[in-house]
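PROTOCOL LOG
Step 1. Enter all chains and additional molecules of the complex.
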Amino acid sequence: MDERHTLDRLRPGETAAVRELRHGEEMARRLTQLGFVPGTRVTCVARAPWGDPAAYLVRGTVIALRGTDAALVETEPPVPAEGGGGRG
Amino acid sequence: MDNGRTPVVALVGNPNVGKSTLFNAVTGLRQHTGNWPGKTVSAAWGRFRRAGREFALVDLPGTYALDPRSPEEAVTRDFLALGGADAVVVVCDAACLERGLALVYQVRELTGRVVVCVNLLDEARRRGVTVDLEELSRALGLPAVGTSAGRRQGVEELLDLTAEAALREEAPPPLPPAEPAEHLAAGERAAARAVRRRGDGRALDRRLDRLLTGKYTALPLLALLLLGVLWLTIVGANLPSQLLTGLFARGEEGLNALWAALGAPEWLRGPLVDGAYRVLGWVVSVMLPPMAIFFPLFTLLEDLGYLPRVAFVMDRAFQRCRACGKQALTMCMGLGCNAVGVTGCRIIDSPRERLLAILTNSLMPCNGRFPPPGKGKPRRREGAAIPSGG
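Step 2. Run joint prediction.
Step 3. Record the structure below.
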């Protein structure tokens, strides 16, 4: 029931809104600047061949995050792919 | 503003928005614009003339924000906050304007003399994105110009407006400081008013991406591409290498004849002709042709946007070695020249991973240290040292 959702568990095509960044100050600041702000919808667009890192569409730009960093981004429950695969 | 002094115009913008291309279009300087090997780290200076006056133009490092707590961003922030610029041009990518506009709002907290430059307009149009510049200007309360700096479109108008902003008596006061999330939200609101998107212009990009980063296709394609580049470099360098070697050999004969005619002593001829001249000839004929082929090919891959995908695909393997995927790129550059490979390491963010990439780069054989020269390459001659390259 009270399952926590994190960005690293997002499958390609799924979208979830950011809830909280649990990184250290420096990394949290960088992610905020890149657009990972609570409420922002993030779509996982691809995973690298070995499953890590993954690429995420955030505010019109694709950004790659390692699993260790993505695991610290808490999200709302994911919603499956919308037809077009998110806004371009 | 006071007369006499040369007004300074600063260029700021997110990484990869064509800021350096714009800088070159304005100043005519040929600063290297590559994102990976030569990304703008320290500020570049140039000049331009407008309205009968000379202006200095400074290209500040690409940044997403002006947070004083981040050392890289502090360079740009301090420059602007300490009044280094009489006007600021914020360069944005038309295809993702909201990001650039978030930076516009941050710059507005430091100065009112801001001109918004919406760059890469032609590329955005191809992706079905159009920007209503008048609406954008109204939304921001700032002058906004659309440019395609690669084709020099819109550059003149940009300079007119920039000169005006720098020389204007009155400027709007700076905005009160706000949180990063507010900058992003404000940028998004302004972009929503001005940007129109038609269809999905990125369908082809996405299909290509699936192939280039796909589970089963990524690595074979990467290996093929890299082998292709190396093959072209090695095979392609043979002929020019041979020609240069011949040319230098003829020059050596000529020099020897000249020395003999002048009656110069042998102890002087030896070091100068057999030493300095022959080594110079060797280095140039062995190293110049492969470099002149390898680096343009690498730049082509960079312009196609393939290099970040290489880093993405390879990162997991490098993580296993406690390194960063971007090191795959600096290692490849090391094949061309270790010096370039090492300087390229600044693209790696983590200091530890960067140091690792720098220290191990010398283990990559640069083209001067490739295995024994094959057919067509200059062979080892008696007394001639094989130059090993940097």
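Step 4. Note key features.
Chain B touches chain A through 39 residues (CB under 8 Å).
The CA atoms of residues 41 and 242 of chain B lie 38 Å apart.
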